[in-house]
Amino acid sequence: MIKKMIQEHPFMMIIITILSISTNGLETVANLILITATNTIISRKTALFFILSGAILLVYLIHWFTGYYANIFEEKMIQATNHDIRKKYMRNQMTLALEDKLNPDDTINVVTNDILLFDQQYLKGFYKLFNCIFGIILSSVALISLHWSLFLASVIMTVLLMFVPKLVGKRLRTTTGNISSNNDKLLKKLNDWTKGYHDLLWNNALFQLWRKTHNSFHTLENSYVDQKRAQQTAVQFGAFMNMAAQVAVNALAGYLAINNMVTFGVVMSAGNLAYQLFGAVSVSTDSIILLQSGSSINDKLVSLTKPVSVDRFEKHQDEIDNIKNIKLHNLSYEYKNGTKIKYPDINVSKGDKVLITGPSGSGKTTLINLLSGRLNDYKGSLKLNNIEYSSFNNLSFLKIFGLQPQSYHIFNDTIANNIALSNDKYSSEQINSAVKKAQLSEKITSLSQGLKTLIGSESEVFSGGELQRVSLARFFIRKRPILIVDEGTSALDKNNAYKVMNLLTQDKNLTLFVITHSIDNDVLSLFNKHINLSQE
């Protein structure tokens, strides 16, 4: 993931590198100037001392500016990377959704919690380590210039410090993986039980909402504690080793100064350079710990953002473009539990209006999925234009079938955007035409903002029946040749339901399938074909 990040944002990475080198280099320069400044105190050169002190202050001021902008550009790079990951992941999810493989809970967890963990641990760890590398190199070069023994001592202590991450690396990877897994389980549990709050309310069981979720909260909270425990084990031990290393280098510099091998000013600077070096090493060990913590999330995101493709080629495109008939013969479907449903033979021609009735469990929803190509492991024969359904690319059916479901979704957006689904290719005239067909014109005209009125699934602007007609307008604007209505007028009163059915059945070019569990004689008279699943 790091390699891809650098390849996709090379210019920004160059800027970060220059700023990072400048920041660490300026700190090293300031420490070297301090040697001369300290020696001027001993030689009582007051004017030179103040000049050098001013120089040190100026260097640190520039150091502050370069450090500030280095951090800003690092954050920009991190957020750009997060955006790239979300973009690739969401593209994959849109592709998977074509095959009904999108899991809302998993999607939300990845684009929020997993990317936050990736940001705070893996990416932050990388940039801290990247910055520390220059600090280690520059301070080491400075120590060599002062005395070889100071550098040698620093190398020995650095090697000891670098062993710290290995102590808890495996444990950190495990705890981070547990956080992601437990958060995913919590989201699924919350989604399940919060969606059912209405049933809990009316059955005097709201107390179960906490009872059924608190263990999942507790497990996730403990995962964070376990991770912090592993991190702090390494961090605190690393901090102790860091202080011990600085003391050792200072002691060696003092010994060298006592024996006139270096000047007294070197003692002061050696301490500062040791602080810079071991501080960088300490932060780098913490960074390696963060990288190890986030490695499991990195691996997960790498896997999830690998390009996913589906076969969109349709060898029978001419048949898709010119629907003539659909035939069912000896059609049956067997569920995983062994239950088998058989369907009556029927020949549906272009423009036919087919009513499908039957009690719950009779296979109405399964028949919808078979007709729309969402299920293809059927037995018997199901043909479109005398070509078996299994010979078509099932994605092609999305272009010819419209579905008015019993459970639909209204987005928190304008009426127009809910109908067009924010697709700019539909004009105002097309939207108004769809509104008219869905019998919403009078209602929308009465609203001060008209089609720009904001609505949502809990909108107080529209009734349930009116929201259902908004969903129906989505089909009218897309003009698919076949429409399946799955209890799609259930929220309408009898009069409006009849008006909508009458409108749909009057369209001579529309092939219509309407699924319902109840039969109204007035509505029944509008259809020329009837499939009664209760007889099977």
From TrEMBL:
<dbReference type="GO" id="GO:0005524">
    <property type="term" value="F:ATP binding"/>
</dbReference>
<keyword id="KW-0067">ATP-binding</keyword>
<dbReference type="InterPro" id="IPR011527">
    <property type="entry name" value="ABC1_TM_dom"/>
</dbReference>
<keyword id="KW-0472">Membrane</keyword>
<dbReference type="GO" id="GO:0015421">
    <property type="term" value="F:ABC-type oligopeptide transporter activity"/>
</dbReference>
<dbReference type="InterPro" id="IPR017871">
    <property type="entry name" value="ABC_transporter-like_CS"/>
</dbReference>
<keyword id="KW-1133">Transmembrane helix</keyword>
<protein>
    <recommendedName>
        <fullName>ABC transporter ATP-binding protein</fullName>
    </recommendedName>
</protein>
<dbReference type="InterPro" id="IPR027417">
    <property type="entry name" value="P-loop_NTPase"/>
</dbReference>
<keyword id="KW-0547">Nucleotide-binding</keyword>
<dbReference type="Pfam" id="PF00664">
    <property type="entry name" value="ABC_membrane"/>
</dbReference>
<keyword id="KW-0812">Transmembrane</keyword>
<feature type="transmembrane region" description="Helical">
    <location>
        <begin position="47"/>
        <end position="70"/>
    </location>
</feature>
<dbReference type="InterPro" id="IPR039421">
    <property type="entry name" value="Type_1_exporter"/>
</dbReference>
<feature type="domain" description="ABC transporter">
    <location>
        <begin position="326"/>
        <end position="536"/>
    </location>
</feature>
<feature type="transmembrane region" description="Helical">
    <location>
        <begin position="237"/>
        <end position="258"/>
    </location>
</feature>
<feature type="transmembrane region" description="Helical">
    <location>
        <begin position="12"/>
        <end position="35"/>
    </location>
</feature>
<dbReference type="GO" id="GO:0016887">
    <property type="term" value="F:ATP hydrolysis activity"/>
</dbReference>
<feature type="domain" description="ABC transmembrane type-1">
    <location>
        <begin position="14"/>
        <end position="293"/>
    </location>
</feature>
<dbReference type="InterPro" id="IPR003593">
    <property type="entry name" value="AAA+_ATPase"/>
</dbReference>
<feature type="transmembrane region" description="Helical">
    <location>
        <begin position="126"/>
        <end position="144"/>
    </location>
</feature>
<dbReference type="InterPro" id="IPR036640">
    <property type="entry name" value="ABC1_TM_sf"/>
</dbReference>
<dbReference type="GO" id="GO:0005886">
    <property type="term" value="C:plasma membrane"/>
</dbReference>
<dbReference type="InterPro" id="IPR003439">
    <property type="entry name" value="ABC_transporter-like_ATP-bd"/>
</dbReference>
<dbReference type="Pfam" id="PF00005">
    <property type="entry name" value="ABC_tran"/>
</dbReference>
